[in-house]
Amino acid sequence: MSVPPTQNRVPYYSQWESRDLVPEFITGRLDAADDPLWQKSGAESPQEYAFWAPRMCGVACLRMALDYWRHPVPPSVPLVRELCEAGAYIREGDTVKGLIYQPFAAHVATRWGLAARSFPDLPATRLRKIVGSGQLALVSVHKSVRTPDVDPPHQGGHLVLAVGVTEESVMLHNPSGLPDQSQEFAAVPWARFAHFYAGRGVVLGA
To answer: By its UniProt entry, which InterPro entries does this protein fall under (predicted)?
Structure first.
């Protein structure tokens, strides 16, 4: 059964404060500690911000969803600290495990009253129906989905927010997408999406 086109008008947030500088951050031409807007993140120092910014794709997706459903949107670093306390991230020295879906979903449901469910197995066909019904989904893809014509080395490892679907494509808000190319409402054909998608995620609803 086909799904009617759906595009939820979700505001966009990058995982870096300066969204126009994402190409410099992801290539290493500019250190995140030199982000001129780092203080907007709520970090206590440029170094704290630089540690978390490359790891906050899930936080950025959550901020988009909170804004969409008209909840106050916390700054990114205080929000990641909160998620650490909830067990959604586990930091050991300079390594971080996460985003861990189940404690993340439980915290989102308790804290904001949103319907949130972890899906360790979320086929693209089901994702299509879920987003087509007006829900949002944090989905695990390879980070190179920002340039979907290039084949990735593997699937998963980076979270994007699925905000719309058509018969041909899934529309993504990508926290590490390229300005004016793949940040907002980036349409990725379903056949190409399969190369990047790990088949798991978290579904959010009002």
So the answer is: Peptidase_C39-like
